[in-house]
């Protein structure tokens, strides 16, 4: 695993998201109900940034919603929870070290992971 610092925890709004542009991937770093998640910042259906959407509970799952067509993605697994999206987005392991958020972008993208505040 190769964790790299992507932002400060204070940069990510509670119950919200932050877009982090790295050299090889754009991440959505999401804080929701005391957990921090990292996933690919691209809707698998419409190819638009997920960070433009709302973070909320949908069908008992913590999700981020694509603003364009309303598909929601489970923050834990990247799986879509409703149509029109049918393909998951990649999720990445997160670690917190004090106020710093670290993400392992070299993981295979299919690992459900979150870090608690």
TrEMBL record:
InterPro entries reported in the protein's UniProt record: Rieske_2Fe-2S, Rieske_2Fe-2S_sf
A Pfam family recorded for this sequence: Rieske
Record domain Rieske: where: 4-103
Keyword Iron applies: yes
UniProt GO molecular function: 2 iron, 2 sulfur cluster binding; dioxygenase activity; metal ion binding; monooxygenase activity; oxidoreductase activity, acting on paired donors, with incorporation or reduction of molecular oxygen
PROSITE patterns reported for this sequence: RIESKE
Keyword field: 2Fe-2S, Dioxygenase, Iron, Iron-sulfur, Metal-binding, Oxidoreductase
Keyword DNA repair: no
Protein name: 3-phenylpropionate/trans-cinnamate dioxygenase ferredoxin subunit
């Amino acid at each position: 695993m190769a964790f790299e610092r992507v932002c400060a925890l204070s940069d990510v709004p509670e119950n919200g998201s932050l877009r982090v542009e790295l050299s090889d991937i754009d991440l959505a770093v999401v804080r929701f109900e005391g957990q921090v998640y990292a996933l690919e910042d691209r809707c698998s259906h419409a190819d638009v940034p997920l960070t433009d959407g709302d973070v909320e509970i949908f069908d008992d799952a913590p999700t981020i919603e694509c603003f364009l067509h309303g598909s929601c993605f489970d923050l834990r697994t990247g799986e879509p929870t409703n149509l029109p999206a049918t393909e998951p987005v990649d999720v990445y392991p997160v670690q917190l070290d004090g106020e710093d958020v670290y993400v392992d972008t070299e993981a295979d993208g299919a690992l459900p992971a979150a870090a608690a505040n």
